Amino acid sequence: MAVFLQIENLTKSVGERMLFEDVSFGINEGDKIGIVAKNGTGKSTLLKIISGQLTPDSGSVVFRGDLKVCYLDQCPELPQGASIIEACLQDGGPAAEAVKRYETALTSDNRDLLAKAIHDMDTIGAWDYEERVKQMLSRLKLHDVTMKVDVLSGGQRKRVALARAIMQQPDMIILDEPTNHLDVEVIEWLENYLRRQRVTLLMVTHDRYFLDRVCNRIIELDDRKAYFYDGNYDYYLRRRLERIEAMNAELARVKNTLRKEQEWMSRQPQARAGKAKFRIDRFYDLKERSQQRHVEENVNLEVKAGYIGSKIFEAEHISKRFGDKIILDDFSYTFSRYEKLGIVGANGVGKSTFIKMLQGIVSPDSGEWNVGETVRFGYYSQEGIAFDDNKKVIDAVTEIAEDIELNGIHIAPMQFLQKFLFSVPDQQKYIHTLSGGEHCRLHLATVLMRRPNFLILDEPTNDLDIVTLGILEEYLADFKGCAIVISHDRYFLDNVVDHIFVMEGNGVVKDFPGTYSEYHQWKLEREKEIEKENAVAAPTDRVRPHANRKEKLTFKERKEFEALEAEIEALNAEKAELDSLFNSGETISDIDVKSARYTELVDIIDEKEMRWLELSEKV
Questions:
Q1: How far out from the chain centre does Cα 203 lie?
Q2: Contact at 8 Å (CB) between 130 and 86?
Q3: For residue 218, pLDDT beyond 90
Q4: CATH class of 313-512
Q5: Burial of 440 (0-12, 13-18, 19+ CB in 10 A)
Q6: Quick one: 3-236 is in which CATH superfamily?
Q7: Whether the predicted pLDDT of 517 surpasses 80
Q8: How far apart are alpha carbons 405 and 235 in whole angstroms?
Q9: SS3 content of the chain, % helix, strand, coil (to 5)
């Protein structure tokens, strides 16, 4: 298998803090690698060094010479003033440039310009490329390709950048938190796409289902080192536990040996005269090894909820719209004590508006929210709290409260912040210097320090690391209060909530009694039932206006689609055999024939995968 990238002895520090040291690994063609670590350990920094955005303190990153690499940042930059399709076509090659000229000509009154653009499209053969771009944008729910990127939301901008990265057809994609700000449906599509495609992948994500289903290798950054696991996220969890147990057992053995050597070293110097120097050196080596820490420092969420009465809230005939967009339409619901609710739905359907109306931040057009007298909200918002960036962490928290009650004990803000992994030096940092994960931890601390009994969490998983998410899940499971969670993280929802509100748009809210995975399975089965009903319906019952009907696979196309998967797998297997042969160093008698076949295979695979992508849009 071809080596795409080799990293040797990579070291990077920020100020006096060492992120990682002497990290070495290689990436082969077909690898799908996920990087996991706590916030602040250098995951995004490592990606930026590999992609050339940052320079390491030492070490090297060497790519194969002809490799085409695409890097997608957490907050991707798009060309100002460009339309969606113009941004998507950026850096897409001759075909993309031809499509851009054609789209520009369409909006002008210059017939000569349009005629030349059409001629260029014909000459380059760019019509298929344009159609594939529009199909990709449609699949990512970007239907108006003429919209300017300047007015797009964060989620829409991320989808445009994703489409641009995919359409560039790189050999390798580097993704930093690709699922942030995406709704669940788009995440599931991206998950399936990356899992099926031949592209090599290196990414950082906190989405554990995404990691488990897409990745075949995991790299963990811990204590300035890198650990490697050849398997998915579930395999990593098992092997990581084994690694920590083995390290702790070794540490216990070292400390036991050190006690014996300490007794020998504690004797009078003359009693050690003539003893072997290597034993003295061994003592200091054992002492250094014994000071290594394998006990993880985690966020300590031991804040208990305040008392909450039996009346929580009642929603009575709530309606809300913004212009023609309906958020809620005559919605009524009675919330129960200790209830934990998840809210899902496409971006823009009004999930955040829903919880802001509950708290009185946004007023309904009609109807009434009746909230119980004992309810004390704790709101973790998607936008975050408005901290003064020029203040220190400790000062910002002290302004909120100089005395914090924690389970009947009064503690100072400094002690409370330490439970959220802000050491005393960290508390002296200015807020503008904090990482995204540190901002989230500080936000979470300010929410919980008020001891709320009704937690409202709007996208809490966007910047929290996997370890902290697991602790937050355990905390919510034992939380003696109520909770509403808006999240695209399916794993988090499955572990936290009792039932799901599915906001389907146009004011429709479906209450599903179960986890998100159970809802997803129900939805798939329901779609199959509808397909069967449509299949046996009379022809007149199936007729719909073409503009409102999603194009489906014909019988012939379905057979072609099924055959393509097997063909692509066989072709990739043949290509992998040739890769192994070329890399073996053996003498190849018919090297010309095999080289020609290899080139032919690459072209055939590209052609068949593109056809598979076209047909998959209809599935």
A1: 9
A2: no
A3: yes
A4: alpha beta
A5: buried
A6: P-loop containing nucleotide triphosphate hydrolases (3.40.50.300)
A7: yes
A8: 41
A9: 45, 20, 35
d(C-alpha 257, C-alpha 363), whole Å:
68
pLDDT (0 to 100) of residue 3: 87
pLDDT tens digits for 546-572? 444 445 666 567 767 777 877 888 888
E strand segments, 159-312: 172-176, 200-204, 217-222, 225-229
> What is the token pair recorded at 564?
């393509």
The rounded distance, in Å, linking the Cα atoms of 172 and 67 is 8
At how many degrees (to 10) do helices 154-167 and 127-139 cross? 140
For 249, 262, 281, 530, the CA distances from 258, given in Å and listed in that order, are: 14, 6, 12, 70
The closest of 381, 498, 365 to 447, measured between CA atoms, is 381
Cβ atoms of residues 31 and 231 within 8 Å: no
| Poorest-pLDDT segment among 218-227, 298-307, 371-380, 439-448 | 298-307
Looking at residue 280, its amino acid is I
CA gap 358, 329 in Å, rounded: 15
Distance CA 209, CA 214 (A): 8
pLDDT digits (tens, 9 = 90+) for 425-464: 888 888 888 877 788 888 888 888 888 899 999 988 877 8
Helices 94-106/127-139 angle, 10° precision: 80
pLDDT at residue 81 greater than cutoff 90: no
Cβ(331)–Cβ(507) below 8 Å:
yes
* DSSP string covering 426-459: HHTSBGGG--HHHHHHHHHHHHHTT--SEEEEES
Torsion of the alpha carbons at 343, 347, 351 and 357, rounded to the nearest 10: 180
Specify which residues 316 forms β-bridges with: 368
3-state secondary structure 66-109: CCCEEEECCCCCCCCCCEHHHHHCCCCCHHHHHHHHHHHHHCCC
Q: What global pTM score does this model have?
A: 0.71
Share of the chain above pLDDT 70, in %: 86
Expressed in angstroms, the distance from the first to the final Cα of the chain is 32
Task: Answer whether 325's CB lies under 8 Å from 303's CB.
Answer: no
User: Strands 172-176, 200-204: parallel, antiparallel or unpaired by DSSP?
Assistant: parallel
